[in-house]
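seq as requested:
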Amino acid sequence: MMWLETEVREHSTSNSKERLELLQGVANSLAQAKEYDHLLRLIQRTWTQSFTLEYFIELLSLATGIIGFNPDISTALYESCVWVNTFLNG
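struct tokens:
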């Protein structure tokens, strides 16, 4: 599944909407393939690389596949949200 993440990096675009659609496709594919470790890393990496609060909020949708698999992870994801929000509002 690493090829999916490589695909995102190679075809990244400055257009945040196109990038978000590509990331959502990768996240959905990882969730369907039950590659939850890869999905979690993708979520963490994209959240920490978000450049505005608005874009970060759009990226929240990437987490839906992993929360359904493991609801307990929602606490860790919430803490990540707090960290990113603090960083962006720095």
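The chain has one domain: 2-89.
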